Amino acid sequence: TSQEQRESLLRLQATLHEELAQERSLQLDAKRLLQEKEVCKLLQKQVSHAGVHGTALECCRPASKRLTVAVAAALGPKASSLLVDSHALALKCIEYLKTARLGSCEFLPIETLRQKQLRGGGEDTEEEEGGTLLPPPPADALPPGCRWAVDCVSFEDRFRHVYQFLLSDCLIVPSLAVARELRFGRAHASVEKYRLVTLDGEKLQRGGVIAFDLGGLTGRLAARWEAQQQDRLLERVEKVREQLQALEHAETTTAERLQQRTAQFNLLHRQCVQLQAKARVWEEQAEEKQEKLHRMQTQLQELREREAARKQELTAKQQALDEIHATVLQQQQRHFAQLDAAVGRRHVLAEHRRRRQRVEALKAELTGLHAQETQLQAELADCGDRLAQLQRSTDAKGEEDEKEKKEDERRLLKQLELTERDVEDADSKREAAAAEARDAQQDLQTHEKNLQKIRERVEASKLEQQRLSREAAAASGRQRQQTMESMQILRQADQQGMRVPLAAGTWRNVRMWVYREEKRRAFLDSSSEDEEPQSVDAPSEERGHSKKSKDAAESPRRTGDIAGRRRSDASERDAPEGEGTGEGEVRDRRREQERPDEDEKLFVIDFSKLAAEKREFISQHKDTPARLLEAAATQEAELLRRGAHLRSLFPNLKVGEKEKKTREQLTEISAELERVQRVSRAAAARLADLQRERNARFAVCFHHCRVAVDVFFRELTTTTFGKDAGLDDATSGFAKVGGRAYLDLERPRGDREDDAFAG
Q1: By its UniProt entry, which InterPro entries does this protein fall under (predicted)?
Q2: Among the three residues 584, 617, 652, which one is the final residue of a domain in this structure?
């Protein structure tokens, strides 16, 4: 009904007024914020860059998003105050503002506030928001969920005195009910000096005044913090985009790196094969040297055995020689006299000489044995030296080979590990490239389908053009046939001495045109008699086609020339025949000299006077010239209509070429658009994957924190505010507040923002 429509319109008007007021408030706040930033930049530039730090709102940040509104309400108008180093610097800034006429501004000198805190400024009893330095309240005096406002803000350590000055007299409480309980309950004595601010921005002053300004200054301050957080998030998004671009650049270089790694892997493989071949050769050489060493050791053992046997033999012979000497001496002493007497001295001397010779022979043999022993010992020493040298060289060579083998194996293993890692990366990149290739193949198939459709349309247009060409050729043939019939009629009329009435031109022009055409045809017939029939047909067709096209092209121009000359030849039809003929011949000669190739255009036949029925029609309607003019106009309109139809049968080749170029440009633009869309879809898919991964990790972390907060808060609440018989009813009811901790996301209705950005 009209009443309901009126109410809905009124509600819509109220909503629009509210939105308009909010928009104006936001614009004013943005303008005010811009002015504050400009003033701060000017002060930093003109007064002191290091001494002016910015506003109290810009130099701090809430500890969590759920405390944003409460901290903004606690700061109040002081959030726009500028932080400076000293009182003297604040005076300089004020002087500059007065000189430059930049408006008013409040300053918070850090050094002055620090000295005030050292002197003990906690005894002040100011009623305004902030400005009172109070110590943190005792933990047992606060219910669960209540915090000192200074602990709810994160800032640099050098600004601690400023925020203690602004927030030390404020407590953040969960709700207004808890604030009233603290203000007017049993704990009133311990918290009577503090201001109480709820999480929703409700303020309970020390005097009991309750204020709520979420749509005013508090809301604007909270919106500024949210805007700063959004700016930081936008910076993070830009960084992520730069990382994505870096990853795309790395993907482009992966193929080159893969080729390099593959070449290195092949080179290392060849080196490994060469080292294995060298190792086999070295093993064979070591085996040969080991066999040679074994043979030499066997020979050395045999020489030692022979030496021992010779030594035993020499010892036995030396003992035998000593025994012989002893026996000879004994015999000489015992039987010298008897032998000398019995045998004679000569026989004894001969025997003695014989024995001495035997002893000398034995000594010579012993000397030879000693020489052989010395030679054998020298050979043994030489063999030992050679064996030791060979053993040392073999050991050194083996150690070097082992070291080289270990180093080569270590280097090859390391390079193989790097190569395998690069190969794995290359496989992953290749899979990604294969996926992109599949997408490109699908896009190519789509393009091929579209191209096939375009080709079909082009074929259809070609067929249509061929049909139109055939119709144009048929129309040209019909026109040529009509021209031949007209020429035949005129030739017969001239042969019989008849003069056909003409609408324009003279009979001389008609005869010139007719007989010139006959001469041309006779010349063509005489020149084609000596040629073959096959060679005659094609040129005739070409000439006929050219004649048709020429006649078709000249017919509109001929019609225009004829219409233009009707006025000039009107007097010739009314004049006497002889006079008109003479003047017409003079004009014909002049026209022939000026334009000899356009004789055909100099006359128009009045076809309405050729047939008998036409003459009869004219004789019947002599008294009604309007009827005659109407019939002539109808006939002329029919001629014009046929000429227009004939012109429409000729195809416009330039339009076809332009259409072809347009289709090519459309194909190129479509390909470029598809490529851009494919790149954008890939980037959007990567961004969506990153967002999903971030949301998943945030959900896991948030669930863990929610469970942990509930457990810890329940334990703390049970320990501090358990059921005690000594507590009265008010305190026991107060202990139930905050018994459970619920952690959830703060998000406006209809907001589709990611979970990581919610409160």
Answers
A1: SMC_hinge (IPR010935), SMC_hinge_sf (IPR036277)
A2: 652
Residue 101, sorted as left (phi over 0), alpha (psi -120 to 50) or beta, turns out to be left
pTM: 0.33
Q: Can you tell me the distance from the alpha carbon of 602 to that of 509, in angstroms, rounded to the nearest whole number?
A: 7
Residues 111 and 180 both lie in one domain: yes
Q: How far apart are CA 198 and CA 31, in angstroms?
A: 29
DSSP string covering 664-691: HHHHHHHHHHHHHHHHHHHHHHHHHHHH
pLDDT score for 501: 66
User: Per-residue pLDDT for 669 more than 70?
Assistant: yes
User: pLDDT per residue over 65-110, tens digit each?
Assistant: 888 888 888 888 888 888 888 888 888 888 888 888 877 788 889 8
Cα 645 from Cα 654, distance rounded (Å) = 20
Tell me the C-alpha distance between 574 and 590, whole Å: 22
Q: What is the DSSP letter of 621?
A: T
Q: How many CB atoms lie within 10 A of CB 602?
A: 24
Query: In terms of domains, do 198 and 262 share one?
Result: no
Task: Choose one of 410, 432, 464: the last residue of a domain.
Answer: 464
Q: Which of 643, 644, 617, 645 has the alpha carbon at shortest distance from 630? A: 617
Q: 705 in a domain, yes or no?
A: yes
Tell me the residue range of the domain where 115 lies: 12-215
| Pairing of β 210-212 and β 202-204 | antiparallel
In a domain, 5, yes or no: no
What pLDDT band is residue 606 in, cutting at 50, 70 and 90? low
Q: Please report which residue ranges of 496-598 form alpha helices under DSSP H.
A: 507-527, 533-565, 570-574, 577-594
When divided into structural domains, the chain yields a total of: 4
- C-alpha–C-alpha distance, residues 207 and 184, integer Å: 11
Give the pLDDT band (50/70/90) at residue 721. Answer: very low
- Which CATH number belongs to the domain containing residue 65 in this structure? 3.30.70.1620
pLDDT confidence tier of residue 650, bands split at 50, 70 and 90: low
The residue among 741 and 157 whose pLDDT is bigger is: 157
Return the closest-CA partner of residue 179 out of 158, 194, 157. 194
- Residues 579 and 660 placed together within one structural domain of the fold: no
Neighbours of 472 (CB within 10 A): 19
Helix (H) or strand (E) holding 196, with range, is: strand 195-198
29 with 169, same domain: the answer is: yes
Q: What is the pLDDT of residue 380?
A: 77
Burial classification of residue 667, based on how many CB atoms lie within 10 Å of its CB (0-12 exposed, 13-18 middle, 19 or more buried): middle
Does an H or E element contain 154, and which? strand 153-155
Closest CA to 113 of 124, 97, 103: 124
Are 210 and 202 spatial neighbours (Cβ–Cβ below 8 Å)? yes
Q: Please state whether beta strands 170-173 and 153-155 pair in parallel, antiparallel, or not at all (unpaired).
A: unpaired
Residues 453 and 474 placed together within one structural domain of the fold: no
Pick the closest to residue 695 from 756, 759, 758 (CA basis): 756
Q: Same structural domain for residues 645 and 663?
A: no
Question: What proportion of the chain, given as a percentage, has pLDDT over 70?
Answer: 70
Contacts of 373 (CB under 8 A, 6+ apart): 307, 310, 311, 314
Mean per-residue pLDDT for 736-755?
61
**The pair of three-digit structure tokens given for residue 724, joined into one six-digit string:** 């005690």
Do 663 and 608 belong to one domain?
no
Q: How far apart are CA 654 and CA 289, in angstroms?
A: 95
Number of residues written out for the chain: 759
In a domain, 224, yes or no: no
Residues 349, 240, single domain; the answer is yes
Out of 42-46, 47-51, 380-384, 611-615, least confident range:
611-615
Q: Note whether residue 474 is domain-resident.
A: yes
Question: What are 702-716's pLDDT values in tens digits?
Answer: 888 888 888 877 777
Alpha carbon of 39 to those of 33, 44, 90, 217: distances in Å? 10, 9, 13, 20
- For tokens 């789509």, name the residue: 446
- In three-state secondary structure terms, 568 is coil
